[in-house]
Each structure stands twice: as structure tokens, then as C-alpha cells.
Amino acid sequence: MKVVKSPDHICLYRTEYANETMDFLTEIDGFHYERKEFCIDFSSCLSISAAAAVVTFAKITRCQLMADSSYDNVSHQSIKIILPLEKVAKKLFVSSGFFDAIRPGGIKKIERLWEDVGNPFKTSNCTDNEIASVIKQLKSRLGSVPDRLVSALSEGYLNIRHHAYAPGTSSDIHGRWWQYVAFNNLKNTLSVVLYDMGVGISETIGRKYVQEGGSALHQDNRIIEYAMIRGKTRYANDQGRGNGFTNIKKPVDINQKAKHLLICSGKGIVKYSNQEIISSDTLANNSFGGTLIEWCFERGGA
Q: Average pLDDT in the 36-55 region?
């Protein structure tokens, strides 16, 4: 049995933890090549951040779904999960709903997770009815929802549904998004994190970026910056479904308690706050394997 051991701190925010976290997430993807019994060992884990939690949730559940639907001689039961040994970390895995989200299970587990309003981890192949349902659950969990956040999420779901995945992607995965609503009591913040495992922003609008004068040797963070320009979409003359990043940015632009908008796609990482990009970087080796969007606010309203 192949064993994938987590780092002590599973975190994408801090430079000192990001590389080993990305290595760990990439190792989880190894199941799609190994296609045999697999153990994901969190025994040494001491902490996990919001963004890293939703990507880990996505990576594990994709393995479970594909094991049941597409791979021979394995099932979701072939993927074992070992909880942290440290008591505080173990309690967090259970109390946050994270363990229920990643524990062995297939599509029925996903359906139960969907129906559990109290669990902040959600995943779905997006349909109109499910969008309405997840927004209702979000409002139930948050009470006061930051202004325009619902519109931003709807835009995110729409983009994933129509643009994120390549033709021929498994029907269990095509159009699928993963979401986590996290409260950080130490920092007094609320984060809403949305992730897909599609082709990434660079792939969807990279050609247009070059056509409009961008370098053919571009880095992924430059494509994200380009996509964040008002109205930029994959279509000629910016016509077509969606509104580029206009709706995505709006909750951070108009809410006084907004902290930042974080966009990670391909190898690019861009942070946006106060109506400007405040940092932009590129990973040296690993890729995010899709696109992650995090809206972060101070607690206590919009």
C-alpha cells in the first residue's frame, strides 16, 4: 500500500509551508496513476489552513469518485485516511466537518454532505437548482452575507460550469466545484473558498492574452492579472457568458470589512485588496491543478 504522509502544517498562505504542502497535494494525485490501495496519513499534521483544506478535500474526493466510476480493481474503500495524532488537530478535523468530507465514501457520501447544512464543505456538479440550494445554505451558516458575495459565487459557479473543464473530462468531475466556508477565531476573519480542478485561467484565456500583445512566454500570474482587468473574458471583444472578474472582485471592492481576494491558478498566485493587486507571484515547480478563489472578510458583518 502506498502511503502519502502530510506535512506538519498544510498551508498555502505561508512561504515556508507552501512547497511541502503542494508536494503533498501532488502526491495525492498519484492515486490516479497507481490505482491500488492508498493511504493518506495525517498523523503528523498540526494545522491546516482554509485554502489548503478545500484543495485537500477536492483531491481526495476526486480520487474516491474516480475509483468508483472509472478505475478497475479499486473503490473509494481503497483510499484509507489516518487522522492526526495531536489532540487539537484531530479535534479540528472532526469538529470542522473536514473528516466527514474526506472520509472513505463515494457519491452517496457527497450527497449526504450536500444535505448536511451544518457542514461547511460542499461539492457539486453545478446545476441551477444546486446553486440556489448552496446559496441558501451559505446564508443559513453566515447569517449576514457580505454584500455581492452571492453574485460573485454565482459568477464563479457559472465560469466553472462553462469554461473550467476540458471536453472528455469524466462526468463525475466535469463542472465540479469544491467549497469551504471557514471562520478563523484567532484572526477574527471569515473566508469563503471556491476551487475547481479544471484547466486553469492561463489555458482558457492565454491565447487572447497573446493576441492582445502579451508575451507568449508568459507566467501564469500575469494571465491572472490580465483576467482581472474589467470585463476580460475568453471571448473576442469580451462578449459571451459571464462578466470576467468584475463580479468576482466586487465583494472585496465594496465591503469595508473586506480583507482580500486571493486567486490561485496554474502556477500563479495573485492577491487583490483595496481595488488593486497587492502581490503577484509564481510557484517554482508545482501547479494548483485548477483555480482557487478566496474571499476574506473581517468578522462582524459586511
A: 97
